Amino acid sequence: MERTLYVPQDTAALAMGADAVADAFRAEAARHGLDLRIVRNGSRGLLWLEPLVEIATPAGRIAYGPVAPEDVPSILDAACTDGAAHPLCHGPTDEIPFLKNQERLTFARVGLIDPLSIPDYEAHGGFAGLRQALGMAPGAIVDAVTESGLRGRGGAAFPTGVKWRTVLQTPAAQKYVVCNADEGDSGTFSDRMLMEGDPCALIEGMAIAGLAVGATRGYIYVRSEYPQAERVLAGALQAAREAGWLGGDIQGSGRAFDIELRRGAGAYICGEETSLLESLEGRRGLVRAKPPLPAVRGLFGCPTVINNVISLATAPFILARGAQAYRDFGMGRSRGTLPFQLAGNIRQGGLVEKAFGLTLRELLYGFGGGSASGRPLRAVQVGGPLGAYLPESQWDTPLDYEAFLAISAMLGHGGVVAFDDTADMAALAEYAMEFCAIESCGKCTPCRIGSVRGTEVIRAIRDGQDRETRAELLRDLCDTMMAGSLCALGGMTPYPVLSALRHFPEDFGLSPVPAPRTAPQPA
Ligand SMILES: Cc1cc2nc3c(=O)[nH]c(=O)nc-3n(C[C@H](O)[C@H](O)[C@H](O)COP(=O)(O)O)c2cc1C
Ligand code: SF4
């Protein structure tokens, strides 16, 4: 009897030795004459259990993890005796609370399917959205995305439907769809997980965007540090083309759309949309002044939809299940779900897709299980390197774009990095400013010079030099950066710096600050 086994080939699993585990299963099966089919799936997102191996049984998929090659013989023994207890067995994967309590819409297939199998993708609902879109007028596709309430998941949360409508309404002989897969934010990995686990969802989403705005060409700009995502995407693009889901005549509809893969230039600023377009065109990643918006004059001077991986990969759900089905999740103006990424000092790190509205505390303790060190958690940075450091008093704020803006924070791309009570928040503030100094594209003065001076001032405060005066200088400098920077790198680096100063003044050797200063706006 053939048995099916799942060993992820996601980067996180590979880093933990998944290839050696797959080899060990192959060798052990050959030794015992077992008929074993090994599927190299994406990760289920329970990263602390990687490599998480699943064995298909009549009762569903049973999870074992974290598996090392030496565990393989006993796991196969346990699997062959159907259900015999094994110390690494976690029972049915879908029943593990971390997974069971999620609302996976965009990530519904990630980890379940063979990422390179079009039949597997279709058997799990794949291409239903594109099939639907092929029978719709462009304006109707844009209407559906607008009504769903989807907002850009790359960080700025701009309404996706509004962006698509601008491109649709801008006449041009050539238009483009560009996928921003640069994923430079610290502690984030949802784009990578999706591209490695369900690449066809991104391909399908880009094709839907193409039909919606009248674009026939797409580019995926994938972070240079993601070679595995690049490999999987290349294979999936080829498979989609061969199956007639990309190319000059999609499924005999007469509609054309194809996608090229481009490797990123390895700079954080190349994730900023205009800088990304410069890089795609073959130049150094330098931010362009807006207007014109990329939707009006983008890649090679043509109207361009530029969206994050998750925004695009969510479009198939909206088209297949309807705008309302997506809108039904979430709160306020934050509709649908966000794939949160739990990282840093956390016991159960991984991917948690949930509707907007849960709290950080629920994420940190309900899903994350508290700190990995066992010490009390002290601060959490949400939204990547430009996100504020939030103290415990703010962990009951609902995870919602507007609620976070109200506390001078942001959700960004959904990265959540936890720190325990040994963290030095002044050192982290210095790091944030230095990061900006290193990654600044240099185009505008507040960021280019301000971040260098800001780093010096924080160092001086930490060295105990005239702390109160320098702290005031630092706040003024942050105001200038927020007000005068051309893009959000310079404009939002003050978020982590000011939040550390405000909530953890003792780490700088300062007395508490009474009132918050200007609430910056994300660009
Ligand atoms: C410094 C900087 C870095 C950024 N990096 C990324 C990134 O890695 N991935 C991404 O999707 N958006 C990134 N963005 C946001 C993009 O500029 C843009 O808003 C996004 O690609 C639009 O797609 P969305 O509407 O689907 O979010 C970055 C912005 C800034 C200012
Ligand atoms: S804020 Fe910084 S990264 Fe952005 S344009 Fe100005 S110099 Fe470049």
Question: Can you characterise this structure?
Answer:
The chain is of the alpha/beta class and 523 residues long. It has helices spanning 11-15, 18-32, 72-80, 97-100, 118-123, 128-134, 138-148, 160-169, 190-197, 199-213, 227-242, 273-280, 309-321, 323-327, 360-367, 401-406, 425-439, 445-462, 467-484, 488-492, 494-503; strands at 3-6, 36-39, 53-57, 60-64, 89-92, 176-181, 217-222, 258-263, 304-308, 330-331, 334-335, 337-344, 350-355, 377-382, 389-391, 415-420. Helix 6 packs parallel to helix 10 (199-213) and helix 7 packs across helix 10 (199-213). The longest helix is centred in the C-terminal third of the chain and has 18 residues, at 445-462. The chain is globular, with a radius of gyration of 24 Å. Iron/sulfur cluster (SF4) binds at residues 269, 287, 440-444, 447-448, 485-487, 489-490.
Essential attributes:
single chain; 523 residues; alpha/beta; 5-stranded mixed beta sheet; 41% helix; binds flavin mononucleotide; binds iron/sulfur cluster
What is the structural class? alpha/beta
Shape field: globular
Distance between the termini: 57 Å
Low-confidence stretches: none
Q: Share of helix among residues?
A: 40-55%
Q: Quaternary state, please? A: single chain
Quick rundown:
With 523 residues, this protein is of the alpha/beta class. It has helices at residues 11-15, 18-32, 72-80, 97-100, 118-123, 128-134, 138-148, 160-169, 190-197, 199-213, 227-242, 273-280, 309-321, 323-327, 360-367, 401-406, 425-439, 445-462, 467-484, 488-492, 494-503; strands at 3-6, 36-39, 53-57, 60-64, 89-92, 176-181, 217-222, 258-263, 304-308, 330-331, 334-335, 337-344, 350-355, 377-382, 389-391, 415-420. The chain is 41% helix and 15% strand.
